[in-house]
Amino acid sequence: MSEHLPVVIVGGGQAGLALSWHLVAGGVEHAILERDTALHTWRDARWDSFCLVTPNWQCQLPGYRYGGPDPDGFMVRLEIIEWLDGYRARFAPPVREHTAVTSLYPRGDGPGAEDPAGGFVVRTAGELISGEIVADQVVVATGGYHTPAIPRLAERLPDGIVQVHSSTYRNPDALPAGAVLVVGTGQSGAQIAEDLHLAGRRVHLAVGNAPRFARRYRGRDVIAWMHDTGHYAKPVTARPLEERALDRTNHYVTGRDGGRDIDLRALARAGMTLHGRLVDLTGSRFHFAADLTTNLDAADEVYNGINTLIDAHITTNGLDVTTGPSRYEPVWRPATSTGPGLGVDDIAAVVWATGFTRDYRWLHAGVFDGAGHPQHLRGVTAVPGLYFLGLPWQHTWGSGRFAGLAQDAAHLAEHIGLRRQAGARPTGAGRS
């Protein structure tokens, strides 16, 4: 038997709930299909000391925003979970938990499909029931981070070394005694390395090419300054081609303890050992690229460049602000471009902060480029009735984040509504 639904949302994270809010408000029947539990990544894929790196005032979803006592602060993990649970309780979205989508394809395109009508066939597998749904329209709201990416050289590490991905790291005490190698310096890698360092652990950090920015500048949070310049509202299509890369690593900074810079040079001066990018493992020795100096300098260049943009905004608008240094000056420089040598016997654990890969193997529709990126314009694909929501840089910097998700959800809700008004509905749909 097939169930018919006007709209199916795949994914029960904040993106799926944000769109559901609009559909509930508009009286549109729909279901959110979630293979785990709604919002589970906030409970299961964040370490204990995790906190936002964007200020609380940017936390806004359709019909809901942060209303706590610290708008300029940064919610910690448990506060984020409580805030999101409050959102779900506001309007009771129709989430079907423990319901995984195993395949999705346009009607007439799938295995054994003979119906040439429009819409989509959504096949599911759940703990209690599996089935098939015919949907007029489908929104893929699974985000852009699906499967932990761990390099193959991990397979060559001795069994005695504990290995965890950043998505399963919890706290320093969960790792065995001894030194820890953290690989990667995006937001997760830099913050986890600091978490371990603050706990008194011996930390080796393989530094990648992630950029960074100041937490505060000229008396304000840098994100507040950049918001005022309009930088975050600029659509991705208005940016230079070299700035449109969808897999760019996020700038590292932290909201911990009220928010501060993450300065890897200062951490090195305080005892953390920095290396270049990890490139190989031969026998019992790690090999690092000769790019440590280059990567640190490049991150500082971005840091200083953002401050320069803010200064230009201040000058243009004649703002009266606090004075102080406009450029970061390195407080430490590496003795070698690779960092010191490191053997497998020197560490007890590795944290792979090496990002994620996309996994759309279940989605059978011609909407992907050669690298596997969904092709769309503000989430609207060339396949009628198929949309994406919650992708990094879907429309602006805020897409996929609390800052811009409401705008993206409203845009897709409008498209869904217009298509429904036009009468786009599979011929003969209904329960069969």
Model description:
By secondary structure, the chain is of the alpha/beta class. It has two domains: 2-146 and 358-421, FAD/NAD(P)-binding domain (3-Layer(bba) Sandwich), CATH 3.50.50; 149-352, FAD/NAD(P)-binding domain (3-Layer(bba) Sandwich), CATH 3.50.50. It is 24% helix and 19% strand. The chain is built from eight helices and 20 strands. It has helices at residues 14-25, 40-44, 77-91, 187-198, 222-229, 264-269, 292-317, 402-421; strands at residues 2-10, 30-33, 60-61, 64-65, 95-96, 99-106, 120-126, 131-140, 147-148, 162-165, 180-183, 203-206, 216-217, 220-221, 273-275, 278-282, 285-288, 349-352, 356-357, 386-388. Strands 1, 2, 5, 6, 7, 8 and 20 form a seven-stranded mixed β-sheet that branches. α1 crosses α8 (402-421) and α5 (222-229) packs across α7. The model is unreliable at 111-116 and 425-432 (pLDDT under 50).
Distance between the termini: 5 Å
- Give the count of structural domains: 2
Structural class: alpha/beta
Sheet with most strands:
7 strands, mixed
What are the segments in which pLDDT stays under 50 over at least 5 consecutive residues?
111-116, 425-432
Number of helices: 8
Q: Work out the oligomeric state of the chains in this entry.
A: single chain
The global form is globular
Percentage of residues in DSSP E strands: 15-25%
Helix content: 10-25%
Element-by-element helix/strand order = EHEHEEHEEEEEEEHEEEHHEEEHEEEH
